[in-house]
Amino acid sequence: MKQPEAAPPVLPGGRRPRILVAMSGGVDSSVAAALLVERGYEVIGVTMKTFCYEDTVDHGKTCCGLDGIRDARRVADGLGIPHYVFDVEEAFTRDVIDDFVSEYAQGRTPNPCVRCNSNTKFRDLIARGKALDCDGIASGHYARVERSEEGGTTLLRGRDQEKDQAYFLWGLPPDVVEVLHLPVGDLTKEEVREQASALGLVTADKPESQEICFVPTGDYRDLLTRRLETRHPALEPGPIVTSDGTVVGEHDGYAGFTVGQRKGLGGGFSEPHFVIEVRSATREVVVGTKDELDASRVEVGEVNWVVGSPPGPGDEVLVQIRHRARAVPASIQQASPLLRLSLHSPQSAVTPGQSAVLFSGDQLLGGGRIIRADTRAPAPSPALGTMQ
Amino acid sequence: MEPHLAENFGNPSSLHRWGRAARNSIETAREGIADLLGVDAGEVFFVRGGTEADNLAVLGRARPGLRIGDRTRIVVSAIEHSAVREAALQAEREGAEVHHVGVDPEAGLDLAHLDALLDEQPALVSIMWVNNEIGAVLPVAEVGARCRAAGVPYHTDAVQALGRVPVHLADSPVDLVTFSGHKLGGPKGTGVLVLRSGIKLDPLHYGGGQEDGIRPGTQDVAGAVGVWTAFRLALGERESEAQRLESLRDSLAEGLSRHLPDLRVHGAGLERAPHILNVGVRDVDGATLMMALDLQGVAVSQGSACSSGASRRSHVLEALYGEQAEAATPIRFSLGLGTDEPEIEEAVRRTVAAVEKINMLERVGR
Questions:
Q1: Which of A259, B26, B170, B233 sits at 20 to 30 Å (Cα–Cα) from A63?
Q2: Sorting pLDDT into bands at 50, 70 and 90, what band is B195?
Q3: Which residues of chain A approach chain B closer than 8 Å at the C-beta?
Q4: A250 forms bridges with which residues in the sheet?
Q5: Mean pLDDT, to the nearest integer, of B125-136?
Q6: CB-based burial of residue B85 (10 Å sphere; 0-12 exposed, 13-18 middle, 19+ buried)?
């Protein structure tokens, strides 16, 4: 029997379960905290200070910076729960920002929110949660956790398909998932805002945050320029070539390019051209037609399984190759050390550095980082594969 | 205080009878405070808190020289409260030279360095009476005597000193002294600057000339009466209370040391006021410890906090211990009227339990 999250069990001694909830100051995590309070949990709010906000010039950005901390604190005050600030700047810089820069320097397109969830946010939350005698941790992500009576835990997509954020949670260690609560996963964004207004939360009308939190200007190249050494090859001009090696132009640094991108290539092609590959070793940005963007075989590294018994070779899964992309059928050709997937129908712009996330229906199985996509070799028909 | 927030609504600057009544209340409070501190009533100025008094002293002394392009020096200790530290930084931005006198964990304030700096005729020496983070008592009499001999005005921030250590300004060679009302249970946002007659000072505000133009603006009558009351109550029981707190503080330090063998008592080698105990705990995450203790009802602090609420490295501990300051997580316990022996035992028990738990988890995590 699966049960959605409801009233907490009363623990021995009549104690209510204590939950540590990550509050960014945004409306989702504010409502998450409020719902947990409403359900009868003992709730402790925390906001993670991830980088030095004093260095950023722009002040009006949502969810980040001191405004976020202040809003989270005001919401916590209103809910009558304690609120603390965790300074995770050092770990965040190392695990998220440094990785972000290094990925671009290697011609890949990183996914910093995934890195943060996998390496920083939830790990920190669970470590401190244990020290603070917490029974669980929570966040405002749009995904669902279902617990069976036997004690099994299932991580599912959020009820609101538009807002679903399961894609970002593939890197969670199993011990995190076990104690995780995602109270807004059963709601739509609309309902979350209604809840926030009904509860009178100060964050009810806060605009959505879209940018990467440590790139408040929205231009990540500024950050690369600041953090890479001067004249780093990623920021130096290089050739734009077609897949047969013909030089067709020059770019101003391959770090500014991502697979599938059309902008910044100059014109002069007989049909629309897109970036199909970024070669950091030769500083080449390879362009091609829409057809050349298609890939059927995907190789994935740094794999993490959220489920206890992961799928193996020959198993059929759904794979999502970017946020907001539809999950498509694929079969697993190899499960380790690298995960090799064969997509049943080719997908456009499978981008190294982005996450490939595996689902079974709505259930999140796990995922990894895309290492490479085979854009040229046609995929074998599934019938000829290794189906068992 | 209460009548001054209700029926005695007069503005002390007004000439009518309600104004006179209010002025009478303020002046009575001023005289009362002057008596308690051992100064003339004309040397007591009401301001809006300790930070304002510190800023007034530092910037007020720096600016006259800066205004006419004189070389202006300000001397402060390396462990000042941020109100003095930041005001000195502002004076520096405005062109002053700021010198920091070091404090050694064993030898205390570097008086030889101070002597050398006094030769340069600074516009002000500002060295606190009792440090707010570790409770260290600085040698006010020695500093004052040296300043007097050099003819240099001496300011001391006595916010943490009054009511905790003997403060008799009649026989203390100090020229400007900062006090706060709320530290002794008075209303928040109230303070006093003692300014000896003859010491020139630029005000920070301009207006109606209240407080002899040192702090213009309509006076806070209830606040002034509140400060006086708080001072009177704190000084009335100072000696017995100090002895009581000192023994509690020592049993707290002893209890913690017994269970946490690596514990470092910050400022142990210095004379310390009885109401603060600052200890360093090795190998434990400070922020987590702070939270664990708060959730357990033990209200401690970590020194200073930045505006986000995240803890920040302590310049006081850095000044005292250099790179070694990093090795231990500071926890500051403040003791006061409500603190008693059972509470100390409970604080020891809960602190030790929290540290051990966090330590255990961190070991597992590694």
A1: A259
A2: very high
A3: 44, 49, 53, 66, 69, 73, 82, 84-87, 127-128, 130-133
A4: A239
A5: 97
A6: buried
Nearest to A72 by CA among A12, A31, A11: A31
Q: CA angle, corner B201, sides to B88 and B90, nearest 5?
A: 20
Q: Does residue B362 contact residue B312 with C-beta atoms inside 8 Å? A: no
Size of interface A-B (CB pairs under 8 A): 48
Q: Are residues A44 and A27 in the same domain?
A: yes
Q: Domain with A329 in it: what CATH number?
A: 2.40.30.10
The parent domain of residue A359 ranges over: 292-384
| Whether residues A279 and A185 fall in one domain | no
Residues in chain B with CB shorter than 8 Å from the CB of A132 are 288, 291-292, 295
* Residue A387, pLDDT score: 36
Q: Tens digit of pLDDT for each residue in B299-326?
A: 888 765 554 555 567 899 999 999 888 7
- Number of H helices and E strands in chain B, helices first, is 10, 12
On whether both A35 and A47 belong to a single domain, the answer is yes
Residue B152: pLDDT above 90? yes
DSSP string, B142-190: HHHHHHHHHT--EEEE-TTTTTTS---GGGS--SEEEEESGGGTS-TT-
Query: Is the ipTM beyond the 0.95 threshold?
Result: no
Count the domains in chain A: 3
Local mean pLDDT, 10-residue blocks, chain A (388 residues): 58 89 93 95 92 50 60 93 89 93 95 93 92 94 92 92 94 92 95 91 77 82 88 93 92 93 83 93 94 94 93 97 94 94 95 97 97 66 40
Q: Active site residue: B15, B170, B306, B364, which one? A: B306
Q: Which residues contact A300 (CB under 8 A, 6 or more apart)?
A: A338, A339, A340, A341, A356, A367, A368, A369, A370, A371
CB of A348 closer than 8 Å to CB of A333: no
Q: How far is CA B82 from CA A52, B52, B155, B305, in A?
A: 20, 12, 15, 11
Q: Which of B293, B295, B357 to mutate to test the interface with A (most CBs of A within 10 A)?
A: B295
Is B306 assigned a catalytic role? yes
Tokens 């062109």 locate to: B95
Per-residue pLDDT at B309: 57
Q: How much is the mean pLDDT over chain B? A: 92
The residue of chain A nearest to residue B353, with distances taken between CA atoms, is A131
Q: Write down the pTM of the prediction.
A: 0.84
The domain boundary, picked from A183, A199, A215, lies at A199
Provide the token pair at B286: 């400070």
Domain end (from A250, A270, A288): A288
Of all residues in chain B, the percent with pLDDT exceeding 70 is 96
- For chain A, first and last CA: distance in Å? 29
Per-residue model confidence as pLDDT tens digits over B19-77: 888 899 999 999 999 999 999 999 999 999 999 999 999 999 999 999 999 999 999 99
- Cα(A96)–Cα(A117) distance, rounded to whole angstroms? 10
